[in-house]
Structures are given as C-alpha cells and as structure tokens.
Specification:
alpha+beta, nine-stranded antiparallel β-sheet, two-stranded antiparallel ribbon, 3 helices
Length: 237
C-alpha cells in the first residue's frame, strides 16, 4: 500500500472529532447529573430522617409530661365539703414568631427529668414549653424547662433546655369536657372554672428545605388521665 495514500485515509476529520467530543460531553453531563442528584436525594433523606427522629422524641417527651399532669386537693379548714382537686396553673397561650403561631404551655407534672444519680426526686415539677427564634436559620427552637416545685420559679421563658429545633410553628389545641376546641387555656380563669382540658392536640411543623411552602407536619393527641376525676369533683362543689 502506498504510504502517502494510507495517511490520507486513516485519520479523523474535524466533524468526527466534534461529534465525538459532543457525545462525550453528553455522557459526562448525564453521569454528573445522576451523581449530584443521588447525593441530593441522600442529603434530603438524611435530613428528613433526622426530623422524624427529633419529632418522635419530642412528642414522646410531651406525652409523658402531659400524661403525668399533677393536681392536688385544696385544703378545707372546716372539712364540711369534699376537698376539690385543683391543677394549680395549667396555662396555654398562643404567640407569634416569624409570622407563625407558636404555643406556650405551663403546668405541674410528676414527669421530672433528673440529670444525675444523686438528685432527689422532687415529686412535682413545673414544666414549661416555650419557643426562641433562631435569626441565622430562620427557624424556631422549642425549649422545655423543668423546675422542682420547691425551687424558686425561673423567669418566664428561661432556664430551659432545647427540646426540638428547626421548627416553623408549634400549636396546642385544648379540648374541654364537651369536646369544644380552644386555642388557649387558663385554669385560673373563671371561664374554665379551675378545670383541666380532657385532651391536648399537639402539632409540630418543621421547616422543609426541599419545599419551603410545604412544612413537615406531625400531630398527636394526649389525654389527661387526671382531668376526668378532677373535673367531676370540681363540678360537684
């Protein structure tokens, strides 16, 4: 074979090179898109798994606190009537943070959490849930304070420990004996007659980074075992 003729027919044309580069670019782009997409899905899945775990722990803690709500009899010096049960203060309010509703709640409970083996069980503690805004994350952290009854009561919305973070809203709905829902509850107010709600509905909404318009929502209801007994006795006064 003539070497000169072979050299003219064995090379690649510019069009062939461009087509090859174009195909290679498409393949590389597809691989990169799949690669980054997989990591994005993994990150979202991991983030949602953390939210689900945090929501589960938070709701379990709140269920334990509310299920152990404490009431005690008022002293009756004359002993002429049965001593009614009173919940001290069971106060649920609604405030706004980041233009979203945030519920706060204060009550007495036997569900005290001790942090060391030498701590004496106080029997009854003042439990409070309140929210603090996170400026950097544009979200809310839910705090829980737990103060033994014999200790000095802390200032409002202080001395608590973080219970849950990354929230967009927290809502409490209180149900009376007749099933009527209330956005707020104050056992010291004449409207509620010193009674407890028979059930509290808790709703937590978390910031959804993948879709900010659709927060991740968790809801559960908690029955207050002592509410029925206390409300029955107080109704007989």
């Amino acid at each position: 074979m003539n070497i000169r003729n072979w050299s003219k027919t064995s090379g690649f044309t510019l069009v062939e090179v461009l087509i090859t580069v174009f195909i290679f670019a498409i393949v590389l782009s597809t691989i990169f898109t799949t690669y980054t997409g997989s990591f994005r899905i993994m990150d979202q899945t991991e983030s949602q798994a953390e939210i689900y775990a945090m929501a589960r722990v938070t709701l379990e803690r709140m269920i334990e606190d509310l299920s152990s709500v404490y009431v005690f009899p008022e002293t009756d010096a004359k002993k002429t009537t049965p001593a009614p049960l009173r919940p001290d203060r069971f106060i649920g309010e609604t405030r706004e943070l980041n233009d979203n509703p945030f519920g706060t709640l204060r009550f007495l409970s036997r569900a005290h959490i001790g942090f060391n083996d030498t701590e004496t069980d106080p029997g009854v503690s003042r439990i409070a849930y309140y929210a603090v805004e996170n400026d950097q994350e544009n979200s809310i952290t839910l705090f829980r304070s737990d103060t033994p009854e014999f200790d000095e009561e802390p200032e409002e919305d202080s001395d608590g420990l973080p219970l849950c973070e990354g929230l967009s809203s927290v809502d409490f709905t209180y149900y009376g004996e007749d099933g009527t829902p209330h956005e707020q509850w104050d056992s010291t107010n004449q409207e509620f007659g010193g009674k407890l709600p028979v059930m509290v509905l808790i709703t937590l909404e978390f910031v959804n980074e993948a879709d900010p318009e659709s927060p991740i929502k968790f809801t559960t209801g908690v029955s207050l075992p002592m509410a029925g007994e206390m409300n029955d006795k107080n109704s007989q006064k």
